Amino acid sequence: MTISAKTKRNRPDAAKEIGLVPLPEEMLLNIRVDGRHLSRLSCSPFGQRELVLGWLFGQNVIKTAADVSAMEINGDQAFVSLYAEAGLGLKQYNPVQVTACSGGEVRPGLFENLPSVSRSYSFTLAQAISLMEQLPPRAEMFKKHGGIHCSMLADMKEQCLLASREDIGRSNSVDKVIGWALLNGTDFGQAALLTTGRISAEMALKVLHAGIPTLISQTTLTSKALEIVRRTGLTLIGHVLKPRPILLNFYHLQTNGQIR
Where are the alpha helices (DSSP H) in the chain? Predict the structure, then answer.
């Protein structure tokens, strides 16, 4: 048998990678509550405490940050302990999986008996635009990497931004600002949530569950989110920075019996 020497070639996997910019980091965060594994979240490796609090609140495991007696973040593990009187939410835990991005089974009855929400404050489209225009300077990770979502919480009475948080997941960025609000005792009823992300059913449900009456997005909404908005009275503005924004329940504000 004659063995010939192989011709040395430049293989693609041996070549230097060209065109890569600093990539956004991704981790899988395991959430355990009182020893029970609840979920594994794909997320950015920062702001995990706020993320876990906001996620547990959105899953109805906790009502307030005070329900948590201890939390330890160790690498990709989040260990949470609840006070005994707050354990009912854990016993009744029924996961909410509705996002098209992560899949999962949508539990029966998830879209039934939705709570209603109403605005006690008024604001103009120009004010909503002004708040959203303050987002780019706050999106530090987006400027560095691209591909990062940002959500902000605004006090609509004072017309000021309270907090902004970024994550590779749009729903994670929402959970983070909600987690921040829980830690800081924010009045959700006087707030609005602004986000770079598409408004899916999951996004609408998170805001609705918190009792935040206004949701503002740079982009569009899904048909299921539209159904939720129509049924609950949630005020929504989509494509807020575009010439033709989407306005839903925007003028349906009741003050002393008058609609404006």
Answer: 48-58, 88-91, 125-132, 135-138, 140-145, 170-184, 201-210, 223-232
Which domains does the chain carry? 27-91 (3.10.20.10), 125-259 (3.40.140.10)
Q: Spell out the per-residue pLDDT of the chain, length 260, in tens.
A: 444 445 455 555 555 677 777 888 999 999 999 999 999 999 999 999 999 999 999 998 999 999 999 999 999 999 999 998 877 778 777 666 554 455 556 666 778 889 999 999 999 999 999 999 988 888 777 777 777 899 999 999 999 999 999 999 999 999 999 999 999 999 999 999 999 989 999 999 999 999 999 999 999 999 999 999 999 999 999 999 999 999 999 875 544 433 34
